[in-house]
Design the sequence.
């Protein structure tokens, strides 16, 4: 939480560990700090070390107990979280689908098509599925409250399925570059005939920075490699209101409209000598935003307000 607030992130969607206690601890800390956060116990019952495995029944039972305890309590949101198809048996994916059906206001989060080896493994485990996306469709896990991490190597049918079902493709650029997974195709997601909702994420498990400014910079580079130039306003929209919309929080956070919760960030576009030098020639808002997204990091976050309360950790001010 200190790292998130230091980098200006006030709301996130988080994979907890497979242990129920970890998710309890996360929500308890979020509540203590007054944050609006979504999280879920990771469900995984195969193809992982024994110490982090659960079972289909335990994954369902513990997730249900956590939903009853935390979902909608203050600013807390539960996300049904099967890690991905390789680590969840058909029985567990069915249990995850049941949780989603029984709790339609919860989010669903998992991973999809991050790399070619993963896709091949899923094809071997689910030989009757049309493709990777179809695996999740078959268990009722693809809908307007579904956040699918990565989505790098999708075919036309899969893009169409995500579009028709209103699911969200979550671009994780620092992770994708660090692991060499591939380059997310934003142009394909924006295809006019079948547009797909897109979010952007740090994915700090595989990514390299908590900073959404750094993440926007890497997303810009990824799209440059794909022949698409992302405008600064577009990038900032994706990281703020766009992500809020992806999480179903468009009327709650991600903007400064009347009635929104007072979660916002004050950015300093002259926070470092390099930024100040570049800003000396900036003449437009787009140029200023471009400085922030290409040169900015946690030093550019002057303050982070969570529910109206200044919350950026500093050496001279402990978080209470």
Sequence:
């Amino acid at each position: 939480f200190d790292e998130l607030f230091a980098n200006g992130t006030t709301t996130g969607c988080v994979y907890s560990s497979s242990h129920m206690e970890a998710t309890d601890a996360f929500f308890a800390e979020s509540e203590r700090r007054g944050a609006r956060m979504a999280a879920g116990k990771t469900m995984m019952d195969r193809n992982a070390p024994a110490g982090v495995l659960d079972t289909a029944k335990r994954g369902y039972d513990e997730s249900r107990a956590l939903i009853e305890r935390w979902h909608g309590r203050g600013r807390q949101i539960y996300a049904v979280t099967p890690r991905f198809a390789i680590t969840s048996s058909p029985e567990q994916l069915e249990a995850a689908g049941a949780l989603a059906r029984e709790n339609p206001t919860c989010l669903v989060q998992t991973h999809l098509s991050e790399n070619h080896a993963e896709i091949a493994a899923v094809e071997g485990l689910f030989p009757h599925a049309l493709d990777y996306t179809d695996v999740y469709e078959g268990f009722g896990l693809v809908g307007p409250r579904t956040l699918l991490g990565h989505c790098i190597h999708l075919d036309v049918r899969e893009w169409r399925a995500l579009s028709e079902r209103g699911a969200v493709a979550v671009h994780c650029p620092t992770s994708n570059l660090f692991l060499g997974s591939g380059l997310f195709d934003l142009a394909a997601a924006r295809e006019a005939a079948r547009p797909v909702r897109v979010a952007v994420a740090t994915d700090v498990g595989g990514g390299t920075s908590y900073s959404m400014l750094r993440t926007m910079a890497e997303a810009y580079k990824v799209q440059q490699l794909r022949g698409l130039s992302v405008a600064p306003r577009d990038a900032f929209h994706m990281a703020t209101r766009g992500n809020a919309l992806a999480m179903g929080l468009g009327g709650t956070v991600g903007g400064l409209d009347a009635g929104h919760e007072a979660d916002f960030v004050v950015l300093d576009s002259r926070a470092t000598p390099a930024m100040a030098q570049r800003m000396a020639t900036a003449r437009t808002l787009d140029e200023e935003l471009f400085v922030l997204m290409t040169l900015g990091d946690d030093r550019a976050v002057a303050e982070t307000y969570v529910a109206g309360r200044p919350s950026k950790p500093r050496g001279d001010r402990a978080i209470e």
User: Anything to note?
Assistant: The first helix runs from residue 2 to 6.
